[in-house]
UniProtKB/TrEMBL annotation, chain B:
Start and end residues of each ABC transporter domain: 2-213
One MF term in the entry's GO annotations: ATP hydrolysis activity
SUPFAM superfamilies (alphabetical): P-loop containing nucleoside triphosphate hydrolases (SSF52540)
Pfam families per UniProt: ABC_tran
Keywords: ATP-binding, Nucleotide-binding, Transport
Family, similarity comment: Belongs to the ABC transporter superfamily.
Record InterPro entries: AAA+_ATPase (IPR003593), ABC_transp_ATP-bind (IPR050319), ABC_transporter-like_ATP-bd (IPR003439), P-loop_NTPase (IPR027417)
Name of the protein in question: Peptide/nickel transport system ATP-binding protein
Keyword Disulfide bond: no
Alphabetical GO biological process terms: transmembrane transport
UniProtKB/TrEMBL annotation, chain C:
Membrane topology recorded in Swiss-Prot or TrEMBL: Multi-pass membrane protein
Family note: Belongs to the binding-protein-dependent transport system permease family.
Pfam families: BPD_transp_1
GO BP annotation list: transmembrane transport
GO cellular component, one term: plasma membrane
Main localization of the protein described in the UniProt heading: membrane
The protein's name in its UniProt record: Peptide/nickel transport system permease protein
Domain of life of the source: Bacteria
Transmembrane segments: 39-59, 100-126, 266-291
Domain ABC transmembrane type-1: 98-288
Cell compartment(s), UniProt: Cell membrane
Amino acid sequence: MTRGPVEAVLESPEEGGALLDGPSRPLLSLDDMSVRFALGGRRAGETVHAVTEARLELLPGQVLALVGESGCGKSVLASALLGLLPANAWLRGSARVGGADAEEDVELLSASEQVLAGRIRGRRIGLVPQSAATHLTPVRTARAQLAEAVRELRGHEDDGDVDELAGRVGLDPAALGHYPHELSGGMAQRVVVASALVGEPPVVIADEPTTGLDRPLVDRTMDLLGELANRSRGVLLITHDLSAARRVATHVAVMYASRVVETGPADEVFDRPWHPYTVGLLNALPERGFEPIPGHPPALTELDALEREWGCAFCRRRPDTPGVAACDGTPELVSYGTRSVAAHPPC
Amino acid sequence: MLRASGLVAGYERGKRVLDGVNVDLPRGGVRGLAGPSGCGKSTLARVLALLQRPWAGTVELDGSPIRGFRHAASRRQRTAVGVVFQQPRPAVDPRMPLRRVLEEPLRASGERGVPERVAELTELTGLDGELLGRFPHEVSDGQLQRACLARAIALRPRYLICDEMTGMLDASTTAALVRVVDEQVRVEGTGVLAISHDESLLHAWAGDDVIRL
Amino acid sequence: MVELDSGRARPPGGGEWRSAARTRAGTARGGTGRARLRARASVVVLVSLVLAAVLVPMLSPAPGLVDYTSVRMPPEPGHPFGTDTSGRDLFVRSWAGLRISLLVAAVSTLVSTVLGSAVGAVAGSFGGWVDRLLMRVVDAINSVPHLLLGIVIVALYRGTVLAVVLSIGLTHWATVARVVRSEVLGLRNRPYIDAAISAGAGRWWVLRKHVLPAIVPQAVLSAVLLVPHAVFHETALSFLGLGLPPHLASIGNILGDGRAAVLLGAWWIVVFPALLLVATTLAVSGLAAGWRDRAVPTRRSELSL
């Protein structure tokens, strides 16, 4: 997404924090962020392109869904933002988490572990992990775990705080006395969401939060995440589940083979996709034709050569998609109003 | 026909999750099985795949009753029912490259022409052939689940239990794997039990032939 | 070290890449590098110790050389480790002792690990009456103090190296069997074992292809932990006069001899041989920790998608 003129003005430090109404500063902005993994052992010399030149922005009130096939790099992106990448990862570009003004901005990719642990995780960025069941400690009650997070992030201990958190995620405070295995899947999920909210982070990242849940539970979790987005908070939802994304997302970013290939307001992208990959994903939904995209995603170690030859990494897999503009071979995102797309201009 | 009648089963030393369940699975078609999580779908899948002994009730395979489960069932009986689980990662040995995952059923049964059949399965399931030398942690969930499906159909089972096979996969991989299974039904006359909580998936896959637990 | 390590190679194109490792320096995530370093240091130390244990006695006068003109000499240039109560040079004698003790410990550990792993794996994967029978045998062995049982075995064939090896090996497999069995029980309900059974794999197939490769790291680890323990048992047996023949310079014999001398102020008789033993133990366990990391492929690579 390109910034409109108003947002561009707000970037300057003297005016940014003063304006309380109108479009606010982005909570999270990724600028040409790339992640590479240098492989070792048998595959020494190979480089995995996990994220390539990602440019994204998350504004307050938005639920930005990052969707794509498994292994396209979307979870790596989340790990990179939280500083949870393994030691063989290399990073380029920037990812800023926005504060009240530019002084408060923190660049995440170069931040030290001390900054990430002390100021970012839980405080500026809350994480809703993949599996509630494995995230909670089995030997302590939900209340004890929330109270610990409150003590750690708010510096004081108060049962009222815990009850208030529980209320916010629709959890009966009485249920907090239970151990994780005594909670239903839905309640455990709520406890995890509540613990992500303890530090009142302006950004909540949910990484595949509905894996293994059944449809009603997926819907409830999604609604809960949707409610988190408000005037001062945005949600980055990483998921492979298009129906779930569709339910709550205000904006969508589609990722294919390490690149964001299309972004825009959710209803527009879902109703009139521009990129052939987005078209393919939507046509694969059971209620929309159940037609798989032929072939498989390219190996992430060979993207360089593929892009040099084809420009658009998707077009070798499926060159022509009806209703989609022909490829112009440039993998970079190009903006058209509120939407942007790579390689396939709107037709 | 794979038939289970009056099944009562539960977790090992745990609570009962199936109480008098009857399921018929005919050959040459896809039958859906829907139900919310925790209703015993996975336990039913394990019993039908002869991997767990029910507390009560009978399982009949092509007219003959099953007396033993797991290793107590004969190899012929076990390999007559293939199974694919929801999570591909715990379902493969982390020490085995994908090629050995695919070879396992063939070698364990002393089949001939293993490399040829592996190539065929790779083609059939749309697995990227270059990944055969990789270890499970080096490939994505989607590719790993393709390998698990390839393993399950390697010996051309007469029945195939897909226990939330696509629960962790994206839309495109889901549609692709469903096609692979449908192809087995068409070519081999496999009887498929498609277990899922996703009604729209089951409707698109099994039409109106969906039973509820 | 980063540039030398192929696993940390900088991606091609542009110098502006930042390593995720550098920004996280000093955290648990930097641990893989330290573990690797520790494993490498262990290999170096262990190889030098073994080489010295083999070469020093070979290149020096016989360790049994008694010289009553120089008993209990403190460390000095001619005798870096001092001399013992019979005036024997402790430097040569300690290395020779390490060689014999390690040999006895290694062989007896091998015996108990192989036996214990086999029993544990069979008990765990077959279950039922097989498991109950084997575990009762394990209980029976564990209920008698190892040393006592060892003495009984060694008393039958006194004074031979084989007797000592068997007496240690046959008493320690029960512990290994227990560890391995619990590993196997943990594996038995893994979905990939289910998948193998469904794919027609028999009991032996599952045991050979899935269970054994998974328990080898654990078995090796418990074997390594047994090595120093076995040395101590050898020491105890020798001390009681039931172990290795007194003319063999095992660490146990040296320590046994030096026991009384310590009271006379000759600390070196005990300290130097004991130091060799401790160094060996640390090196072997460092190596085992590194090996365990390598044995699991997911830990081998730092990338998982």
